[in-house]
Each structure stands twice: as C-alpha cells, then as structure tokens.
Amino acid sequence: MTGLLAAAAVLSACTEAAETYDAVFITEAQSTVELTLSVDPDLLADEPATTVFTVSTSVKAESDVQVNLKFSPELLDSYNSKNGTEYSYAPDGSFDLSSLTATVKAGKSMSDDIVLTVKDGSGFEAGVTYCVPVSIESTSSMTVLEPSRTIYVVLRTPVVSKAMYLTASNQYIVPGLEFASEYAAMSQVTMETMIYVNNFREDGNTISSIMGIEGEFGLRFGDVKIKPNQLQVCHGDYQPAAATPLEKGKWYHVAAVYDGAKLSIYVDGAEAGGMAMSGETINLTSVSTRGFQMGGSYNDQNGRPLDGYIAETRVWSRALSAAELKNNMYYLNPDKATGLIAYWRMNECESVPEADFTTYPTLTGSDFRTRAQNVVRDLSGNGFDAYGEKQYDQVTYLDAKWL
After folding, report:
1. What does the pLDDT look like over 347-397, one tens digit per residue?
2. Residue 400: strand pairing partners
3. Could you say which of 3.40.50.10680, 2.60.120.200, 3.40.50.2000, 1.25.40.10 is the CATH number of the domain covering 160-402?
4. How far is residue 393 from each of residues 65, 158, 222, 401, measured CA to CA in Å?
5. Would you kindly state where each structural domain of the chain is located, as residue ranges?
6. Residue pair 303/243 in contact by the 8 Å Cβ criterion
7. How many Å apart are CA 362 and CA 211, to the nearest integer?
C-alpha cells in the first residue's frame, strides 16, 4: 500500500495477502496528534483564537460522506498518562466548533475547514495547559481509521511571572545538596531553566555559568572551542555543545539531560546537541568549587558569572523526555511532579533568617564570599533552598509573560 494516508490493512490469520478498505480520518492527525493554539485570555473578547482541521477519505468519495464529530474529554486521562502531559479539559463554554458535522462531497477527498474557536478565557487558570480532544463519532459510509480518529487541540495560555537577575554580585549556592547522600551517584538527572541573557562574555574568559556543579554537571554558555553564546553541558571530559548559538535579549528554555547513556542539551524542548557516555554516574553532592550554584562557578566574582535572568529553575532525579520539557517550560505544579529534587521559581526571595545560618554555617564562612543576604525557597518540599548575595530588597527582576 502507498503512503498509508488512510488505507488500513488487516492481516488475516494464515494468509499472506492484506485486506484493504476505504477509510475516513482527521487529516491533520495523520502527521501529528496535537494541534497547538496560543490563547491569551485577556485578548479573546476582541479577537477570539481559532484553529482549523479537516476530515479526509482515502479515496475520492463516490457520493457525499457525512462525518459526525464529538468532543472527547474522556480520552484525556489516558492521553496524559501515555505522553507525560498534564492537560486539563478546557472549561465548558470557552470554545466551540463551527460544526459538529463535516462532509466530504462526491468527487472530493477532503471536507471544508472545521474551525475550533476559543472565545472566553474567564475560566482559565494561570499555568494550566488545556486540551480539547475532537473525535470522529460516526460516518454515513466508510470505516474510521482508528489511529487518526482524534485530534488533540492544545490551548497554551500565557504565564505571567518574574525572573531574577543573576550577575557577579548576585550568584546562588545550594548548600543542602552537599548532605543529600542519595544524590551522590545518579544514573539519571535533568536540569532546566528559563533564561534571558543580557550579554554574553567577550572578555577573554568566554564562559557564563547557568547552573550546576563545575566539572561535575554544569550547564553554561561558551568555552575555548565554542562561541560565548553556544550552550554547553559538562561532565568531566564530556562537553557537548548546542549546534546553534543563542541570542541575547530573548527568552529560551534550556535543559541538560543525562539518561545513563547520553548527555544531551535541549533548547525550547528540542534536542540541540549531545554525546554518548559510558554509564558514569553524576554526583550532585560534590562541593567542588562551592558545590551546586546558579549564575556562577568557583569562589570569586570573576568565576564565570552570568549576566542575565533566570526563572522556573529545576533539578530532577530522572531524564525528562522532550515532551515533558516542552509541556512544562513555563510553569510546574510540584505536587504532581515525579522525581523532582529542587524547584526554584526565581520570582521572589526573602531575607535570610538567623536559623538558616545555624543549619548551614558555611553561609557565613570563607566558602561563601559574603554573608548570604537573600534566600530563594525550594518549592519541591525537599528543603534545597538557594542563597544569594544581594540584600533581598535590592535584587533586580524582569517581568515576564511566556506563551
């Protein structure tokens, strides 16, 4: 059979021939099960958001083929479980279809456009990704091609937040990881963050550190053999870099993923570079060059600082898939996360209570350049708070709206 556009085959037992039949299917579902629609609830009153799809037949229809459509919220739980997503069904009344009937007219093999319109965002919640599954319910003739019966229309809404400025005078350490022995020999790990760079280094030392442990598992920009705006992840001599440089003044989601066999870099949910490893483990308890840091490495203010903003910064004890990275770039519900080690939104900080200096006395010692002035709390519930050097009321933020 050619193309598998809609012709389906059923191999009968003990026969070599395949039985084919004419079929009806959602056209777009042949290439992707998801259609993504960006929806800003604040703008819907003036300009509803729309997307279109069609219904096709595997052969030209001899007579009109009527196809009845339906919304299928009951499919979301299994879809989320299979794909690692956390989609919610869009609120009732927020969307509609131009028609629940599509017709492939005689002599044609595709229907007119079916338009899904999102018209009311008043019931949308911040940080929630919604989805509207639309399925073929029945047809007047021809069999439905099951793999392409349903299209999942994903509604991505904006996340409004703040991002924290990291620079030579406001870098962060996470002293609690030093004592977490369960993370000393990890066969899988993921680090991820949103990042907006003001300037990449051009002063001879081309490295700008984002997060991690220098030499052990670090995500950074630049090195001797790559450009200052190329993303790189390092574990000893394993130092893969992203093929495409990034731009300053632009938001990106960046991630480093180790799955036990490969060290990979992701940008905006797509793999951008990688290198095979030989089964080594990663030690997140290492105190080399002050242990786990954000915005710098080593022990002084010239220690490869970042000049930019970060937000939605997380560490995981497992290798996240590309779909997981993409689906949760802008917001995460830590109560629903599996394998989350630490989560810093980096949208606020507070003054450091005296009790924190008792818990981690090195905060006032020589290992930390100055007494810790602010703390960003870990939202995972594991207590891996991050300590920075500026007074909490002098930290700079950037308003962010991600869609």
Report:
1. 999 999 999 999 998 787 766 656 799 999 999 999 999 999 899 999 999
2. 161
3. 2.60.120.200
4. 66, 27, 31, 22
5. 8-157, 160-402
6. no
7. 20
283, 186 contact by CB (below 8 A): yes
Question: Are 291 and 214 contacting, i.e. CB atoms less than 8 angstroms apart?
Answer: no
Contact 94, 119 (CB under 8 A): yes
> Which residue is associated with the tokens 């997307």?
51
Q: Which pLDDT tens digit goes with each residue over 300-351?
A: 556 688 999 999 999 999 999 998 998 889 999 899 899 999 999 999 999 9
pLDDT at 128: 85
pLDDT band of 84, cuts 50, 70, 90: confident
Q: Which two tokens stand for residue 78?
A: 């299994």
CA dist., res. 6 & res. 270, Å (int) = 29
Q: How many CB atoms lie within 10 A of CB 96?
A: 16
Q: List Cα–Cα distances, 52 to 73, 111, 205, 370, in angstroms.
A: 19, 11, 50, 57
The per-residue pLDDT for range 155-169, each reduced to its tens digit, is: 988 888 999 999 988
The residues facing 10 across adjacent strands are 19
